[in-house]
Structures are given as C-alpha cells and as structure tokens.
Amino acid sequence: MKNSLIIILFFTVGILCGFYEVIPRIFIENDLSSYALYLLIFLVGITVGGDSDSWKILQKEKLRIFLVPTTVVVGTLIGVGIASFFLSGINLRESLAVGAGFGYYSLSSIIISQISGKTLGVIALLANITREIFTLLFTPIIVKYLGKLAPIVSGGATSMDTTLPIITKFSGKDYALISIFSGTVLTILVPVLVTFILKI
Amino acid sequence: MLSVIFILILGITTGYLLKKKESFIKTADKLLLWSIYLLLFLLGISVGSNQTIIRNFAEIGFKAIILSLSGVAASIFLSYLVYRFFWKKNEK
Q1: ipTM of the assembly?
Q2: Residue A101: C-alpha distances to residues A12, A68, A76, B77 (Å)
Q3: What string of H, E and C letters represents the secondary structure of A154-169?
Q4: What's CA A34's distance to the chain center, in Å?
Q5: Residue from B5, B42, B55 whose CB has the most chain A CBs within 10 Å, to mutate
Q6: CA-CA distances (angstroms) from residue A163 to A154, B41, B90?
Q7: How many Å apart are CA A143 and CA A151, to the nearest integer?
Q8: Domain-wise residue ranges, chain B
Q9: How far apart are CA A68 and CA A185, in angstroms?
Q10: How many angstroms separate the CA atoms of A157 and A186, rounded?
C-alpha cells in the first residue's frame, strides 16, 4: 500500500512538472526509451526467479492451482472485451491490452504507452490501480459471498505482494501460497501478453 | 515481442542462479522499485504536457474504471464457479 502511494505521488508530481513545463521536453522524449523498459522487465525477471517459494507450491498443490491464474486471464479478458463494446473511442484490442495488466499497473502502463501512446497508457494505469484498490477495499465482502479464491482472482498480479496480506487474512493461510503462485504467474504473463495483444 | 520474452527469461534465469546471493536480489528489488518510480514520473511528465489527455481526464478516468470493474467482476464470477467445483468440494 505504501509503495502504491509513492508511485501515485511520483506520477502526480510528474503530471505537475509536465503541465507547468518545469523540465524541458527534449529531455523527456529521449529518455523514455525502450531500453529503460527492457531493464525494467529484466529486473522483474530477477525478482521472480530469485523468489524460490512459488515454485515449491507447485509440488504441494496439484494441477488445479493453474486454474487460478487461468481464471484471472479468461475472466478479465471476457469482462473487458464485453465492456469495450459499450465504450466509445476504445477498440477491442486496446481494451484487452488494458485488461491484461491484471493489476500490474506500473509495468503495463509503461509498455502500453510505449506501443499505443500516452492516452491508452493512462487508461491502463488508472484501470489497473483501480483493480488493486478494489481488492484492498472489498476483499472481506467478496470472500464472504463469492468464495476464498475471489480476492486472489480480483488482485490479479498483485496477489503476490500488495494484496497478499489482506488475502491471507480473509481467505486464510492455506490460500496464501495459492495467492503467491497466481500472482507470480500473472506477473510473468503481463509483459508477454500485453505486448502480444498490441503487436499481433 | 520476442525480445520481451527473451529478456524476461534471461532475468528469471539470472535471479534463479543468484538466489543464494540475497544482497543481489535485494538490490535488484530496490532498483526495480526506483526504475518504476522514474518511469512513472516520466509518464506523468508526458501526460501533464499533453493537452489532449489533460482536457479529457474525466473521460479517460471513466473508461478506466468501467474497464477495471468489468474485468474484475467477470473474473470473480468465474472464480466462484472454479471455487465451488474444485475447492469447496474437497473441503469439509
């Protein structure tokens, strides 16, 4: 939660700097290169590979554990796909790319703004922040009515870090490992799937 | 596309091989956080200087919330079914 606030702060300060033209434009446009993005993806890989816990769970839980991230992918893409028909000015492909952030707003918004432009990047940022905030706020209610997997699925890629504490608290310790696993799979999937959707 | 997958696999392998070196993983983790801060700060700057986005911010925000909630709602609904048929059955 603390990190989310810091991220929003950096983004907001950035908006103000841009709006009041504190920093020269040329500096910005040259700096946000794809190399910085590649570094980011590389670092995501290191933190996933360096965290061995998530691979051990695979042996304990049976194959059904794969159903959890699969549910997130299938459910989210169906949902945003349907929504895209009701929204003007955003097509199916763009909607699917925003949805494929699965709550990982920092990485998805950066990739999307590189490939499809700033407007869609901002939509991805806000949509995926909303996903995290929704999970933090509504986990107690959705567990009660829709089952213990609901907050893990709602959290998407964040279920391995920012929303993990609240999920563990309300779904129980047994579900913490499933949550970490699902979050890890989705974290790996986000850069791959978002790029795939926008470039194919 | 291919380069994203390649770099990701390279990162995972590097992390996996060096997972015993906790200081390395921790540094990567911190660096990751700061590069996210930097990139979002830069995204903020280009958003702030983009008149089209600033003028349409309410509309953009509305679209974002609709997309987010429909994605979450559909996946939670699906998870309810998955939970009932694959988890709850096995719990006493």
Answers
A1: 0.84
A2: 20, 16, 10, 19
A3: HHHHHHHCCCHHHHHH
A4: 19
A5: B42
A6: 10, 23, 26
A7: 7
A8: 1-50, 56-92
A9: 10
A10: 5
Three-class SS of B19-86: CCCHHHHHHHHHHHHHHHHHHHHHHHHHHHCCHHHHHCHHHHHHHHHHHHHHHHHHHHHHHHHHHHHH
Q: Within an 8 Å CB–CB cutoff, is residue A137 touching chain B?
A: no
pTM of the predicted structure, to 2 decimals: 0.81
Of A6, A47, A192, the CB nearest to B4: A192
The dihedral region occupied by A71, where left means phi > 0, alpha psi between -120 and 50, and beta the remainder, is: alpha
Torsion of CA B71, B73, B75, B77, to 10 degrees: -160
DSSP state of A100: T
Say which of B10, B37, B76 has its CB closest to residue A153: B76
Containing A76, the helix (H) or strand (E) segment is helix A67-84
- Per-residue pLDDT tens for A20-60? 877 766 655 555 556 777 788 888 888 878 876 656 666 66
> Are the CB atoms for B34 and A100 separated by under 8 Å?
no
CA-based R_g, chain A, Å: 17
Radius of gyration of chain B (CA): 21
Q: For residue range A147-162, list pLDDT tens digits in order.
A: 999 999 999 999 988 8
CA B2 to chain centroid = 19
CB contact under 8 A, B31 and A43: yes
The span from the CA of A44 to the CA of B25, in Å, is 11
Residues whose CB is less than 8 angstroms from the CB of residue B68 and which lie 6 or more positions away in sequence, other chains included: A126, A127, A128, A130, A131, A134
Tell the residue number behind the tokens 């999307």, with chain if given. A112
